[in-house]
Amino acid sequence: MKISILTLFPEAMQPYLDSSILGRAERAGLLDVAFYPIRDYSLDKHKKTDDYPFGGGAGLVMTPQPVFDAMAAARQRHRPSCKVIYLSPQGRRLDNRLARQLAGEEELILLCGHYEGIDQRIVDQLVDMEVSIGDYVLTGGELAALVLVDSVSRFVPGVVGNENVHEDESFEDGLLEYPQYTRPADFRGFAVPEVLLSGHHAHIEAWHKEKALEKTRAVRPDLLGEEQKPEV
Ligand SMILES: C[S@@+](CC[C@H](N)C(=O)[O-])C[C@H]1O[C@@H](n2cnc3c(N)ncnc32)[C@H](O)[C@@H]1O
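Above are the sequence and the S-adenosylmethionine SMILES. Below is the predicted complex in structure-token form.
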């Protein structure tokens, strides 16, 4: 999957992309991420990328010129049909369904805002979709873009190895995953549930299902179409 990221802070993102499963995916050629550092495209003599908002208000807003020019450069690496996503608290909430759908795109351009956000003309002219990673406000879109790249990459064939790995995972079948255990069978007197050591596949499967339902009902009844208990 080919992804281009427009950001003011590529150095904050690169180490994560170089590590662990995503780093391995890039080295294997399954993931191809390129950065377009927005400041490099500023025509201002001080490389300024933000300014005060018209009409007043707090903070600074990212100006159109550097983003438009960075986008023009990024576009050259992609098919004309490649979607542009702006990470924004005002966007569609990211979930597994959207991550799977975006993995099918094969190419994406991601735009990270910073400060108080970006000039609306950037959104109107350059952006196909706004995506949020949750109902809270971050200082910048970089963490959100990493969350998107990570969750989308897991649906790119080969990135997480075993093709069946998603089957039991949380949110598949509308359930959270059952509890997992590994060696040793007894750790300081805390034993692994007997059934998992039985080798009896039907019993293990029934136990997985029961525990997944139990957990989902306790913490995310909304996934089962049940009412969420009020928070305490
Ligand atoms: C401080 S925020 C701007 C918030 C904007 N003033 C508003 O109220 O909608 C700066 C940048 O962080 C990113 N951001 C903040 N929260 C986000 C979220 N929940 N999901 C995705 N991106 C987010 C966006 O790229 C945004 O341009």
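The longest helix spans residues 201-219.
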